[in-house]
Structure formats: structure tokens, C-alpha cells
Amino acid sequence: MSTHTHDQHAHGTHAHGGHAHAAHAGHGDHAHAGHAHGGGDHPAGLPGGLQITQDGYTLDLAETVVRPGDLDLRFRILGPDGRPVTDYTSIHDRDLHLIVARRELTGFWHVHPVLADDGNWSVRLHLPEAGAYRVFTDIAPTALGRTITLGADLAVAGAYDPRPTPAPNRTVVVDDYEVTLDGDLTTGAGGLLTLTVHRNGVPVTDLQPYLGAYGHLVVLRAGDLAYVHVHPNGAPGDGVTAPGPAVTFHTAAPGVGTYRLFLDFKHGDTVRTAAFTLTAAAHQHH
Q1: 19 pLDDT above the threshold of 50
Q2: Which end is more exposed in the chain, N or C (fewer Cβ atoms within 10 Å of the end residue's Cβ)?
Q3: What is the pLDDT of residue 283?
Q4: Alpha carbon of 51 to those of 46, 75, 98, 179: distances in Å?
Q5: In terms of DSSP bridges, do strands 177-182 and 202-203 run parallel, antiparallel, or are they unpaired?
Q6: pLDDT at residue 43 tops 70
């Protein structure tokens, strides 16, 4: 195991109370303006995350049934030759972004596993409740030359009490932060979503870069968990992008439906996650 610390944070199981804390090391300031992955370059126009295998690459979980609580999640990415992939191109300071979400989208974890020399990835996770989960990996295998998102099911054993996807909301309180969402989620060309962060009623103007950006947005569709990972317009250190209170993303939904949006932002050396529910409408052409 490498001695590198892995980043871990989670969104709790309620629309307004969930939060997580972990200290995070500083990261580089490079980012791509308005860059999204997980939503494009898919066969027959499929959104990201719906397939366990794509373009010859396969997400191979060591275990597909686990017990609730602390666990070591282990997996490999198998290449077209059937061997574990060890050569990746970095995406926002990491060779792999791992997202775990409950099927009902009432729980969310964004972590960064450690890669061993033999191609096995591992990360310590805490999944508190039994239920149906989905695991996503954002990767850019060097041999492939672009980003893909693979998805696989994970079952946490035990008595399962599913809850409905939280109702639509545009304001979330996380610790003493209030995050509001402006803009509409649409299909086609999409549009701008702006998330504004206040702390105790005061605009936060000193957001910290996290993985090379002032915010990361993961969008998941209720029902099939179609996946889009969006990075904000602008980048820290580019001379024009302010460190809050507003972070703007150009986002296109892969289809109409209900979506959960999970915003990761860093302030006070802690990464927090604010979760929203929106209904996506068809893009209106003018």
C-alpha cells in the first residue's frame, strides 16, 4: 500500500442534514474550463456509468456483496488484454475518481483509492446502511486516450429499508454553510447552473481549490443512475475566476427525469458535499 492519504468524504442520508468532514491536502490549480466527463464518448449516445464494460475496459470489483460499516473496497480496471491497467492519464489531479452512491441517491461518497503496482486499487470506506449501491470509476487509461466512466452494482447486506429520492430543493444546509442553486437542468445543449455558498449568512469569498477547481459536481439520474461529472467554468489562478461565493457549471442532462446533484466544495481545509434534487426538462430550441 502506498503511504498516500486518500481523500474521503460523504453526503449523509438526508436532504438537509448530511455532511462529512475530512482534512484534505492542497492540490494543484490546473483545471479545464467547463470540462465534463462521464457524459460523452459513449456508444449509441449512452450516458456514462451505465456499463461495467466499455471500449474493452472493465470494472472488476473484488467483492460485490459486503457488510455494513467500515470496509476495504478493492477492485481492478481490466484492459482489452484482460490484464489490470496500471497506466492512467490524470484527471483533475487523480488517476481515478471513485464515486459510490445509494440507488435511491440518498447517500454519496467521492473518494480517491490508492493504486498498487500490480494494478489493484483499494480504499477504506464507511457504508453505514444495508442497501443497493452503485460504484462509478472515472478513468482515462493512457492507451485509450480519453475519459470513460464505468459502473458496477454493490450490495450491502442486511435489512434494507429503501427511501424515496429526496424531493426537489434549491437550498441545502451543510454544517454552518448554506448553498443555493440557480438555473435549470436541461437536455441537449444544457445550460448554466450556479451554486452560491454562504456561511452563517455571509458570502464565502475564499473557497479553496479542491482537485484543481473551486467545486466539483456529480449529476445522477434517479431510476438508472446515468452519470455526469462536471467541472466548473474557469479555474483557480486563471486571473478571472473568483474563489466564491458563486461557482458556475455548464451542465447538460442526458435525458429528462429526476436528478440528484452533489456539489463538493472546500473551505476551512474541509471538503463538504451539498446535495440537490432537480427535474430536467427538454432543451427548448429558439
Answers
A1: no
A2: C
A3: 72
A4: 9, 16, 15, 32
A5: unpaired
A6: no
Q: What is the pLDDT of residue 88?
A: 98
Q: What is residue 286's predicted lDDT score, i.e. its pLDDT? A: 57
State the Cα–Cα distance between residues 74 and 51, nearest whole angstrom: 19
Q: Is 228 left (phi over 0), alpha (psi -120 to 50) or beta?
A: beta
Distant-in-sequence, close-in-space partners of 18: CB < 8 Å, separation ≥ 6: 10, 11, 12, 107, 174, 273, 275
Identify whether the C-beta of residue 246 lies closer than 8 Å to the C-beta of residue 203: no
User: Mean pLDDT over all residues of the chain?
Assistant: 86
Instruction: Using the structure block, give the residue that is written with the C-alpha cell 481515478.
Output: 96
Where b means 16+ CB within 10 Å and e means fewer, 218-229 reads bbbbbebbbbbb
Burial class (CB in 10 A: 0-12, 13-18, 19+), 25: exposed
Taken in order 83, 86, 87, 89, the sign of the CA dihedral is: positive
Sheet holding 36-37, edge to edge: 36-37, 227-230, 216-221, 257-267, 270-280
Buried b (16+ CB within 10 A) or exposed e, 155-172: ebeeeeeeeebbeeeeeb
- Only one residue has cell 452519470, namely 227
Query: Each residue of 111-131: pLDDT tens digit?
Result: 999 999 999 999 999 999 999
Q: What is the mean pLDDT of residues 240-247?
A: 96
